[in-house]
């Protein structure tokens, strides 16, 4: 039946709407004037969502963003002050015995498909606010609805919004020109940093870029990042083994997309009076972009 509706959708909509074909007709939404999805109904049932508008500017101070590079293994998270909130991405939940996660971001559908063990642990944690896309919410509700205890925040790729046409790469600037929260790179119209995630989030090949936009929107002044290695892609992530390692698609994107995007993010965040501290001393991300400081030194010198 799903393939039938998909075919109906394809033949009754322009190709620019193709990214919605797996959502229709099961997903019904309402948008607020701010642009965010304010109400969601999936397969006939309402889905409670945390309002993005209520999250805007709701935080301040420091937050720890736990990425998943191998350098994570060298950090003693017991030294992390208890009052610093922690955001995880993908498999970082493996640190849950060492840190208390309150925020989480997963936008990789392959991760939903291949690491159900971690997904189920995250959604069963009532302390967590999980930011994910509609495709992620659909996978959770279709597979683990009875286990869902975490809160959900629905986020969208700014160029692939639900029931709106895809924004082509060469038209991104024109589509958002004049909308100040969408901060485009002056030299490239395929790199942008959104300071208002209600209008969408821009991708740069890594979930960390999504997380930076979310945390900036929430109002955090200092974003501390562990595991932001961006090198040694042949090695397992800190929570993986050689046997269960998922493929990484970052290596081919690092030089052309990821690094220029991080540099752009650093400029925009500086304008917003927020900074990033990179705890990965051997990270490929230059110190001129995100300041490198060892985890121990940062907290020993407070």
TrEMBL record:
Gene3D superfamilies the UniProt entry points to: Alpha-2,3-sialyltransferase
Keyword Transmembrane listed: yes
Top-level taxon of the source organism: Bacteria
Alphabetical UniProt keywords: Membrane, Transmembrane, Transmembrane helix
Ranges that cross the membrane: 207-228
Protein name, UniProt field: Sugar glycosyltransferase
Organism: Phytobacter palmae
């Amino acid at each position: 039946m799903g393939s039938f509706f998909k075919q109906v959708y394809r033949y009754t909509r322009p190709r620019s709407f193709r990214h919605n074909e797996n959502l229709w007709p099961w997903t019904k939404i309402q948008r607020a004037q701010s642009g965010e999805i304010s109400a969601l109904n999936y397969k006939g049932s309402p889905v409670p969502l945390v309002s993005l508008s209520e999250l805007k500017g709701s935080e301040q101070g420091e937050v720890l963003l736990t990425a998943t590079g191998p350098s994570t293994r060298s950090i003693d998270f017991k030294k992390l002050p208890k009052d610093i909130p922690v955001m995880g991405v993908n498999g970082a939940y493996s640190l849950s015995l060492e840190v208390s996660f309150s925020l989480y971001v997963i936008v990789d559908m392959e991760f939903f498909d291949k690491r159900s063990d971690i997904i189920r642990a995250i959604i069963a944690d009532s302390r967590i606010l999980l930011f994910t896309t509609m495709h992620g919410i659909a996978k959770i509700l279709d597979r683990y609805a009875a286990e869902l205890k975490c809160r959900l925040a629905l986020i969208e790729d700014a160029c692939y919004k639900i029931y709106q046409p895809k924004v082509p790469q060469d038209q991104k600037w024109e589509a958002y020109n004049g909308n100040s929260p969408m901060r485009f790179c002056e030299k490239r119209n395929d790199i942008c940093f959104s300071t208002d995630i209600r209008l969408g989030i821009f991708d740069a090949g890594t979930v960390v870029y999504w997380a930076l936009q979310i945390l900036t929107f929430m109002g955090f002044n200092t974003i501390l990042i562990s595991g932001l290695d961006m090198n040694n892609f042949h090695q397992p992530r800190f929570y993986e083994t050689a046997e269960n390692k998922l493929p990484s698609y970052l290596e081919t994107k690092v030089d052309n997309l990821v690094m220029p995007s991080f540099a752009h993010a650093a400029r925009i965040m500086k304008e917003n009076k927020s900074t990033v501290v990179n705890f990965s001393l051997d990270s490929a991300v230059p110190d001129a972009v995100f300041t490198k400081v060892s985890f121990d030194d940062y907290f020993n010198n407070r």
